[in-house]
Amino acid sequence: MKRVLLLLTLILVMVSSITAGTLAMYTVSIDNLAEGSVVAKEFIFVGEGADNFQQGLKIAPAETVQWQFKVKNYQNHIVSETDMYYKLTFNVDALSGKSAIEPLTVTVKDSKGHVLNRVTGVGTFDVLGSFPLAANGQEEDYTVEIYWPSDGTTDIDYAGGNYGTMINVDAVASQIPFSTQPENPSPSSQVSVRYETTTPWQNGQSGNYQYEYKITITNNSSEAINNWRIGFFLHTDQLISSWSNAKLVSNSSDGYYEFLNPGYNNQATDNILPGQSVSFRGPARGMGTAAIQNVTVGGSNISNIVDLDLKCEFGKASLN
């Protein structure tokens, strides 16, 4: 069947008016779609149309409420005819005319309960996913969890009708992979990290999806990073090993990874000189569309650097 370039844009506005002990309404509305639809609690990235969904929830201090939804690339017997990449952008802000409930924590989890991202108070974050071309339809489940921690003293500060939090979720789908690179990147930090992945392929024996990853660390400072190391979290995919230029020394069940320099006694690989970079790559299991998070880079002469520039690029044909 002829492959058709699809660019599906879907905007979901989930407005949550949350007040202590009162009804919190989550309203999903879709208007003027180019392609795609939402049916009840589902994002469907094929066909045309629009729908809406409403659900009433209550929340009070020390309580947790959840809102679940599904992303699909099929509707009935119709399945998308290309690889499908999607990005969910969650923007948590104060409701119009009100002040935000600062203690609220909004967390997004996948179907296995892995935390993909979260924000406390107000803020914005992305969740990326994809469906590779296949004869059968695919789907992914997500849970939005809203938690109001209670310390027993400041809860009264948010009583009444002057406080409310709004959650806007923008969903965009495309045949072209998304990047986590911001449109207006911040000035260079001491260190830059680039995480790249190839288009995933399916293992003919196991049926599992695999891809190749590459990580590049660049030293933007005037001081060398001796005996470098890098650590980060990656929950939804699994990095198996490193082929060269790095040693995988930690791969814990909670998705934490740590790589060390290869220990070749070679300044070009064990240290990162000012203005220079080191790269390593290896095989991985999964779709290769999840960004690494909470990245730290350190060395024998410096403590861990957490304020760094991170760029993630997914679904490349090859890695140079």
TrEMBL record:
GO biological process: carbohydrate metabolic process
Domain of life of the organism encoding this protein: Bacteria
InterPro entries named in the record: CBD2, CBM2/CBM3_carb-bd_dom_sf, CBM2_carb-bd_dom_sf
Pfam families: CBM_2
GO-annotated molecular function: hydrolase activity, hydrolyzing O-glycosyl compounds; polysaccharide binding
Gene3D superfamilies tied to this protein: 2.60.40.290
Domain CBM2: 184-305
Name assigned to this protein: Putative cellulose binding protein
